């Protein structure tokens, strides 16, 4: 076969194959069976990672007016942080009268015992001995007991005791004389007129006697009298004591100055008084630690606290807190503290939990300073200014009771 013929045959085959292929493809297109174009990012769906971020120029776009915007959410009202409710403590005046039933409950055995003994028909030696024992059991102390028995005996002999009422009147007068209503029981908590310095009250006592509680309760007494009070948590030994005091303060809107745990109590006391001066407070109440076992250690620490505070000016009150239920132990503590600091007043706590009301007299004698406040319960307003008459009436109970 000639070369020319060979080329013609190949060309013919190519043309036939080309026509066949065209015939196969063209009808398919015309029938519209071409697969739909793939969805386009930015047009058919939100572009994701790896997609083109923008829609191609020829893409059909949704006019802005047709775009559905999400409904705006109503703005939430700003939530005000809830301010802790500031309590309005009960005024202190007349509190002992309110608490008298509690006093009477704890002292009933003392009062009733004495009254029934004194009302006996025959007041013989044995009866007087029983009276003496009753008074000693109530922690009155030896010397005051002997004095009281002596006076009662004399008056019984001279005036005679004709009736239970007469016995009551006699006992009331003599107990009152022993408690001594003439003592000055005023708490010095007023701001100094000369220089505007706040009154400084230092609260001392052995741990667990109710010191921190007393500072908290006293703050409430003063707040009830519209005083501006500031607290100093100089009991840095026990962190919980500062927390406890801060809680008491917060409840009545009073600021507590505190220092680091285990820090220098004198420096906290100093800062508290300084803050009190700057804030023109009326009274600064300083809680102290009483953990010290030795007199020397106690003297060092309390002495330092007092000295450092006195860089600002003299301390106005040093209140010694004693737990009435500890009896003679309380007296020993009173003696030690009395030698270390000049105590100006006694706070006798937990009188609601003991029948030994005689401790009031004993401790006043021991220190030569008056009981100024008494604690008659764990409630925040269960601290009362000490009122000798209400106290003696509490011991004796109601006249008809
Ligand atoms: N029943 C009664 N309990 C009281 C009275 N005063 C204080 N207490 C309770 O005595 C306990 C001790 O009180 P605190 O104030 O913690 O004693 P504290 O002397 O400060 O002790 P420290 O903080 O460890 O120094 C608490 O449970 C008080 O509620 C009171 O008059 N009557």
TrEMBL record:
Residues 370-383 form the SRP54-type proteins GTP-binding domain. Pfam families: SRP54, SRP54_N. It is a peripheral membrane protein. It catalyses: GTP + H2O = GDP + phosphate + H(+). It is an enzyme of class 3 (hydrolase). GO terms for molecular function: GTP binding; GTPase activity; signal recognition particle binding. Keywords: Cell membrane, Cytoplasm, GTP-binding, Hydrolase, Membrane, Nucleotide-binding, Receptor, Transmembrane, Transmembrane helix. InterPro entries: AAA+_ATPase (IPR003593), P-loop_NTPase (IPR027417), Signal_recog_particl_SRP54_hlx (IPR013822), SR_rcpt_FtsY (IPR004390), SRP/SRP_N (IPR036225), SRP54_GTPase_dom (IPR000897), SRP54_N_sf (IPR042101). GTP binds at residues 205-212, 287-291, 349-352. Signal peptide: none annotated. GO terms for biological process: SRP-dependent cotranslational protein targeting to membrane. The chain crosses the membrane at residues 6-26. Its EC number is 3.6.5.4. It is found in: Cell membrane; Cytoplasm. Its main location: membrane. GO terms for cellular component: cytoplasm; plasma membrane. Residues 32-86 are annotated as: Disordered. It comes from the Bacteria. Involved in targeting and insertion of nascent membrane proteins into the cytoplasmic membrane. Acts as a receptor for the complex formed by the signal recognition particle (SRP) and the ribosome-nascent chain (RNC). PANTHER family: SIGNAL RECOGNITION PARTICLE RECEPTOR SUBUNIT ALPHA. Belongs to the GTP-binding SRP family. FtsY subfamily. This is Signal recognition particle receptor FtsY. The lineage of its organism: Bacteria, Bacillati, Actinomycetota, Actinomycetes, Jiangellales. The gene is ftsY.
